Fold this sequence. Notes:
35 strands, globular, SH3 type barrels, 18% helix, nine-stranded mixed sheet, alpha+beta, Cathepsin B, Chain A, 13 helices, five-stranded antiparallel sheet
Amino acid sequence: VIRYKKGHVPGVVKNLMQIGKKESKDDLNMLGFEVEFVDSEDNLSPKQLGQLPIFSASDIIQVVPSYSVPLGLQYRDIKRGGSTGKVVMRINSMPSTGTSRRQVTNSQSMRSVAPGRTRSEPPVPLEVGSLVEVVNNAGVTVYGVIRWLGIPEGKLETWAGVELDYEVAGCSDGVYKDQRYFTCKENCALFVPVTKCSPDSRFVCSSTETETFNTTEIPPVPAYEESEEDAPPVPESEAASLFVGKMKGIQGHINSCYLDATLFSLFSSSVTVDAICNKPADKERPITCILKSIVNRLRRQGFVPAQSVMNFRKKLGCETFSKNEKESDPEEFISVLFQKVLCIQPLLKLRSEGGSSHGAYTLQIFLEKEQMGQTPTVQKLLDTSCMSGDIKFETMPSCLIIQMPRCGSKYKMFSHIIPSTELDVTDLLFNSPRECFICGQMAKFECLQCLPDHKLQPGRIKQYCNTCNTQVHTHRSRCSHSPQALAVPEGVAVDTPLPRRTMQLFGVLCIQTSHFVSFVKYGPDSHSWLFFDSMADRHGDDEKGYSVPEVRACPELGDFLGQPEEELTWANPALTSELVRRLLCDSYMYLYHSPEMSVSKPSDGEP
């Protein structure tokens, strides 16, 4: 998609060339892209006389490989690579109105022929429940599930009602031309001719590979020798070369994605949780030795086979983790991992209302949607949740794992959440000196009712010194507030500089259609991001096949997250790249750490 004449125009790159002159031999040539435009009907424009226009990289706002061009687009001279796959289905429990039960064949789907032979394949069927993708005339791809099929009033051909994965301006809640066909969230229903729908390319399984697969095609597992020395976290300078590629990371097995994504996020590069791995494994605890072997292999070889992880799952001693047909959640696994396997005390010491104290390994966000704006940041979610529940951290956490307000893939409170790369927990520490929100002096009071006040920067924790507390609550809109006195440590001077206590984001677990993936920040550089999927692809069927894990570099996350918070809040996920959109819309759990702290303190009664 090209930025052209104050608009965005889709096209096809026809040629690459070097442009400009080099002033010295050390200069780099600029790369030019010769582009043939696509008209409003998604066809290539007629050949123009003379040379095609040439653009620089700065003019290109979105790139889609030719092999992933949706089946419904008729691009001349471009063939779709790979084979037509089986359509993945998603069943939605919400009722549909007037839905046709027929199957619709996508007449535009292309057939794959294995080398050396010809054969005829049936076209790909689309029906209610099919996962599909649709490309608009601007070249932007949206994804969703077909909720209704039929012929709307005034139309002559079959149309599809698609519930999108995220909100898009101009869409409805299931109504088309004053007629309701199904019900979903506002701005999530798209109605298009069914010929515009293609099977979701993110979940297409190759039928050719399934037919020709046999057990001898399983790639040999690279040789690996155990070492008595523990491997350190992979440094930033080596992470990309070690991890990026296919058959990298941790190989998934049926329903193991939650565990694979968690292990990769925790142990690939974080220096804070490294102390956990360096804790000597008790020989009487085989499960600890297995985990140690998995982590060392990941850091040395960049790949862990599924069998190693399956052995670990069986040793966890619970059918939830070992049975293939059962699916678990990361928070359940994290608690067992730290408490039972690594014998680590709770990562968090929380002090709740009434002064009671308890430990926890993860922190669940609890709040009412009305307390937040349309697009919250992780910082605002944490502040609001802790203030509303009167929860404080008794000590500065070394590792903070925050679970977003959602329930698996079935429900999420917000369509997307803005990641906070740095988390300020200063005002959430119990019995710790805090500065006044207004003047910066030592705070003596805290007010929960001031939290959503739009005149006082909504979403920020409000604490005041004596003077500012009186002035703020003199206003008629705040006269009814009930500020609470803060526990101020003794011996701290009023004018003492108060340093901020912050934590850094190092991982994000995401879920989409019951499948977990993860993003990992592997170094201080803002562009040092990896995307990991333990089941990115599959060779063969469920019985004889194997999953293909993949790790991808995604420096575009650094560019996006480097924008001012105000711009991030107004960002439209539909106009971002695939991985940025997944990070914003699918986030399930955020992982933060304090690199200067250790979390290797053993549990009470444990070695």
